[in-house]
Structures are given as structure tokens and as C-alpha cells.
């Protein structure tokens, strides 16, 4: 029997397991028998009126991070198995917005992506948001990348500590080889002047990596479109037939090599065939066991 966790647009924060775990579960659990609990993240001293977490990852049930947007300064929280605690990034000299994702390989190797505003030398707009990546080594958080030529980062995922991808707005894409981050590109003939947004990156070690691209048209008489890319050999290639106005969101690749995507329902890529297998409903994230 197969089980999927579908995050369908909902309020609150439910923690059934760690997001995008690198290690398989030793004993598959019956999710129909789990008790779900909604946790509230609130820090009075931060003067938050709105907290919306966008991403969650953990190395164990006692080591979980979540990041996202807040109206105050509480962009990252940490769960130690008992309670959620605000991560004071400012104490490490880090002042960024964490509207992207958090992902890691162990308790002492965690990454998070986001942005930092700077005044635009050629307005409008008056400000732009450049690329920022931070890293936790088990002791402290520190900047790993600050690139004013890149833009806001949305997603981060890696097959190994020396093979990590991060992507975001305006065709911003980076790869980490274990030593440094390098700017990369999707070599595809997108329509000129359109806004290219890399919204999700995901996959499974040894079985491939995927990128979801949202294309905002330059003119109002055209609709936005979603593209799906797969990393093959040494380059990103468009998955044939996946060029759609229907939303794509979230990526999970199974051990058997199938890839599942949320968005406009639950979608599956099996071999070269991409099809909707459940819906239409709004699915923001997907994770499974097989």
C-alpha cells in the first residue's frame, strides 16, 4: 500500500514528520492512525501579527527547523522535541528575509535560502532583493553566499553535501560543489522579457533532480505557464510535454524512480509520461514512502 502526505492549502503548522528526509523510514507507519497536532508559533517580543512558515526540515524528531515569512523578526524556528523556539539569527549577524526553504543533511549541516533588500540604482522599483544563502555547522549560522547580481531565492535541495542547488527569481540558479557556490543557468529558449521564477527544486539522490519554473508573461494578454526541468548528465533539460498553465508546486521522487508533483492536483512523472492522478484540488506539497 502506498501513502502520501498532501499539504493542501491550510492554516496552521502540522508536523507529522521531517520534510524531505534523506533517510528512509525503517518501519512504514499507518498515517491514518496518527494524531495530528497544530502548533502555534508566536513570540510576543517580536511584535508579530502574522507568521506564515513556508518550509520545514529536520534530521530527527528532536531536531527540526521551519522558515518563512513573519511581520516581525521571527523568520526561523527550531523544535527540540518538546517545544518550538525562535532562532535569533541577528545574534549571528544575519539580517535577511527567509521566504525560501530550509534543507539539510544532518544536525550539523543545514542550509536556508532567502533574500536581502538593497536600494535599486535604476528604479522602479526603489528596492530589489538579492540572493542570500546561510549555513549551520552545528554551532553557528553564517552567510555562505551574498550575491547582489542574483535575486530572491525560493528553493534549496541537494543530493549530497557537495551537490546542492538553490534557485529563485529572475532566473537565479546556483550550484554548490562542497567548496563554493557557482551561478548556473537553464539553457532554454524562454520567451524574451518574461519573468522566469524558479519556484521548487527537488529529487532523489541517484535518481535525478527536478526544477519547476513559473513563467510570468511580459504582457497582460498572455497567461503564466509552468515548466518542468530534469537534470540529465551535466545539464538541465525540459521534460517533454510539461509546459502548462496548470499550477505545479512541490516535488517528491520515490525510491522506484517515479516523481510526484503538487499544484493542480497530484501529478506523476513515470518514465516519459506526465499525468494527473488525483484532483483537481490545490496541493502545495507532497511526500511519500514508496
From TrEMBL:
Domain of life assignment: Bacteria
Stated name of the protein: Uncharacterized protein
Taxonomic path: Bacteria, Pseudomonadati, Calditrichota, Calditrichia, Calditrichales
Amino acid at each position: 500500500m502506498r501513502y502520501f502526505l498532501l499539504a493542501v492549502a491550510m492554516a496552521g503548522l502540522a508536523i507529522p514528520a521531517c520534510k524531505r528526509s534523506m533517510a528512509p523510514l525503517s518501519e512504514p507507519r499507518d498515517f491514518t492512525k496518527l494524531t495530528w497536532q497544530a502548533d502555534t508559533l508566536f513570540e510576543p517580543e517580536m511584535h508579530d501579527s502574522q507568521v506564515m512558515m513556508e518550509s520545514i526540515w529536520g534530521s530527527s524528531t528532536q531536531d527540526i527547523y521551519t522558515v518563512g515569512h513573519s511581520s516581525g523578526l521571527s523568520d526561523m524556528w527550531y523544535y527540540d522535541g518538546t517545544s518550538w523556539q525562535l532562532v535569533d539569527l541577528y545574534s549571528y549577524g544575519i539580517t535577511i528575509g527567509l521566504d525560501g526553504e530550509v534543507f539539510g543533511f544532518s544536525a550539523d549541516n543545514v542550509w536556508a535560502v532567502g533574500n536581502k533588500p538593497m536600494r535599486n540604482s535604476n528604479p522602479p522599483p526603489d528596492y530589489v532583493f538579492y540572493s542570500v544563502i546561510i549555513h549551520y555547522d552545528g554551532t553557528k549560522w553564517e552567510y555562505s553566499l551574498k550575491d547582489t547580481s542574483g535575486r530572491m531565492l525560493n528553493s534549496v535541495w541537494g543530493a549530497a553535501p557537495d551537490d546542492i542547488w538553490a534557485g529563485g527569481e529572475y532566473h537565479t540558479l546556483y550550484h554548490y560543489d562542497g567548496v563554493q557556490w557557482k551561478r548556473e543557468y537553464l539553457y532554454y529558449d524562454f520567451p524574451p522579457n518574461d519573468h522566469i521564477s524558479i519556484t521548487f527544486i527537488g529529487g532523489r539522490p541517484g535518481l535525478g533532480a527536478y526544477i519547476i519554473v513559473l513563467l510570468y508573461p511580459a504582457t497582460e494578454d498572455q497567461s503564466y505557464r509552468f515548466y518542468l526541468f530534469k537534470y540529465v548528465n551535466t545539464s538541465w533539460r525540459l521534460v517533454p510535454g510539461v509546459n502548462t498553465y496548470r499550477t505545479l508546486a512541490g516535488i517528491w521522487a520515490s525510491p522506484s524512480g517515479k516523481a510526484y508533483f503538487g499544484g493542480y492536483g497530484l501529478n506523476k512523472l513515470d518514465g516519459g509520461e506526465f499525468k494527473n492522478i488525483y484532483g483537481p484540488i490545490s496541493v502545495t506539497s507532497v511526500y511519500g514512502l514508496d
